Amino acid sequence: MSPKRKISLSEEELVLALRNREKIAVEALYDMYSASLFGVISRIITDTAIAEDVLQETFVKIWHSFSGYSAEKGRLFTWMVNIARNLSIDKIRSKDFKNQNKNQELENNVTFIDEQRNTVYKPELLGIRELVSTLKPEQKSILDLVYFKGYTHVEAAEELGVPLGTIKTRLRMAIQQLRKHFN
Amino acid sequence: MENVQAYIESGILELYVLGDISPEERLQVEEMAANHSEVKAEIGEIELSMEAFAETHAVETSELVKTKILNSLLVNLGDDKTFTKPRKHNSEEVFEDEVDNVIALPARRSNFYKYAFAACLTLLLISVYGIVNLYSKLQESSTQLTAMQLDKQKIANQVNVMDDELDIYRDTSYKVLKLKGVAKSPQSAMTLAWSPVTKKVVLDMHSVKLPAHDKQHQYQLWALVGGKPVDMGVFDLNTDTASVKQMKSIAMADAFAVTLEPAGGSAGPTLDQMVVMGGTK
User: Fold this and answer.
1) Using CB atoms, which residue from A23, A110, A179 is nearest to B74?
2) Chain B nearest C-alpha distance from A38 (Å)
3) One domain for residues A53 and A3
4) Among A84, A103, A122, residue at a domain's last position
5) Same-domain pairing of A145 and A111
6) How far apart are CA B150 and CA B138, in angstroms?
7) Chain B residues with beta carbon closer than 8 angstroms to that of A113
8) Are B264 and B232 in contact (CB under 8 A)?
9) Are the C-beta atoms of residues B9 and A169 closer than 8 Å to each other?
10) Alpha-carbon gap: B103 to the closest alpha carbon of chain A (Å)
């Protein structure tokens, strides 16, 4: 296995290969999605060692419950990132984790972690900082809470002290903003 | 159409993509997506943007983590292939081959453990038996040892007594006095040894010929010093079984006498119960 070469397949090919339990599918899956999944996990869990454990748990779970994924219900990444987020949230809400770790302040999260780690800046993604700055503060905070801190929208409404409907609207607006940016 | 648009605008599709939704709502969204292509398209758009958003936040893992995770997955893959494949073959050879590979090895191994376990169990039983045996032997010997020590002590005591007896004969200062029966009991007689030097008075219990007494009475020895009786202690024909009995000490005596007294002795002699008497000169 050459460490430099990364395997990339189309999503359909990957799903098919995973269904057939092919070895190449495992590597392709890892090469294509580990960084994105680890990005999400390590924003929920700031301890690198624990985040790496959760990443492993995530891949094991993806591998074992792959029969539960169906392409009609959505994209592969959506299914996987929800597994990763659920495992991460379970971990930070577990007793032993709470005892050994305090979460960091919300406000500085994104930039702080970006400074801490060697985040990959792909050429097409160079606009990330502008992107984050194009989001309104309340859109940014709702995305942080729900996407990176593992809050449910109900918990986020309580945390921010706004009605549920407002939370949903803000979340939608934030994602609309992202769509505009990426298209 | 109005309804569908309102449904899209409600924000529930975003929550659906984020997985932050109840199972009932999930079914509802999936039904809507199945029936309305614009809902399905909207979901796809949201998914793509969230995926892109995640990519902008991607964090590369180290090679070490990659190797570790891939290995753990590939181990699983090996198992999966071994245990899920042998369903659809048509050649018998392959079948046998795989059966050999899959079953023979674990079977041999489990046999080994079975024998090892049996051997361990046997060893354990033998050891337990040996320990129990040794323990009972140890108990036996320590009982014997105690008994022998008791014996030894008894013999040592006896030797001491004998030594004392011998001393009476060796020590020339001892006088052997024969006490004769008085008029009341002419058959009575006994012998005692007295040493004015060591002041010891020893009764020769074998020589005592006195009328038997009951449990309420004991014989008491008296020494007469200048006409006055001095208590020399009591002796009991029933319980004093040793061959000699040492009495109280006295340096000077004119005569010795024995009277029958209530058990434990009296302060002064009951003269009409006197049985034997003898002078020292």
Assistant:
1) A23
2) 6
3) yes
4) A103
5) yes
6) 18
7) 59
8) no
9) no
10) 22
CA distance B90 to chain A (A): 20
- Taking only the tens place, the pLDDT of each residue in B92-117 is 444 444 444 454 455 555 678 889 99
Residue of A36, A116, A16 whose CA lies nearest to A83: A36
Q: Is the pTM of this model over 0.80?
A: no
CATH code at A91? Answer: 1.10.1740.10
Does residue A80 share a domain with residue A4?
yes
Of A46, A74, A103, at which residue does a domain stop?
A103
| Single-letter residue type at B34 | A
Identify the domain containing residue A152 by its residue range. Answer: 107-183
Burial pattern B77-116, b for ≥16 Cβ within 10 A else e, equals: beeeeeeeeeeeeeeeeeeeeeeeeeeeeeeeeeeeeeee
* Structural domain total, chain A: 2
- Name the residue with tokens 């580990």: A34
Contact A18, A29 (CB under 8 A): yes
Same-domain check for residues A115 and A96:
no
The ipTM, to two decimals, is 0.75
CA–CA separation, B155 and B157 (whole Å): 5
Do residues A79 and A9 share a domain?
A: yes
Chain B's closest residue to A129, CA to CA, is B56
